[in-house]
Amino acid sequence: MHIDNASGPRAYGQGDHSFQTAGGEAGIRHLVTEFYHQMATLPEAQHIRSLHPEDQEESIDKLACFLTGWMGGPPRYDEKYGRISIPGAHYHIDIGIAERDAWLLCMEKALELEAEYPQDFREYLMKQLSFPANLCRNRD
After folding, report:
1. pLDDT in tens, 45-78
2. CA 20, CA 107: separation in Å to the nearest integer?
3. Alpha carbon 124 to chain centroid, angstroms
């Protein structure tokens, strides 16, 4: 738990605390850009990279918009793309354990490079992101 002097102690996931800790929209966009860089360079992520368009700009924008709202910031995904069902948005892609694990590895590596993120925040995000990552699985 971190201290926010204006409102007292708040845990990640309360209000916009995660969003603010991530650096707001600019910080989240930076994280997502690094995530896609990891996807493009990690050998373990070669397959999931092939499932994305060559031009990653829309993928970066969609994930950044989603994470912005998911972390308690403005609902950018809803504003720009409409409501989302995480499993439904990924149903057309074969996602098993290997793909889920590669996605999480890319996020873990991207988070490692975010030196200004407190370690407990990185751990919190990885734990929380494992839930939607599992929801995307549609095969064993």
Report:
1. 999 999 999 999 999 999 999 999 999 999 999 9
2. 18
3. 12
Q: How many CB atoms lie within 10 A of CB 98?
A: 11
108 CB-side CA count, 13 A: 14
CA end-to-end span of the chain, whole Å? 36
CA–chain centroid gap for 52, Å, is 15
Token code pair at residue 124: 């919190």
CA-to-CA distance for 94 and 29, rounded, in angstroms? 26
Q: How open is the CA angle 21-112-30, to the nearest 5 degrees?
A: 55
- Token pair 């050998």: residue: 43
Whether 17 and 4 have beta carbons less than 8 Å apart is answered as yes
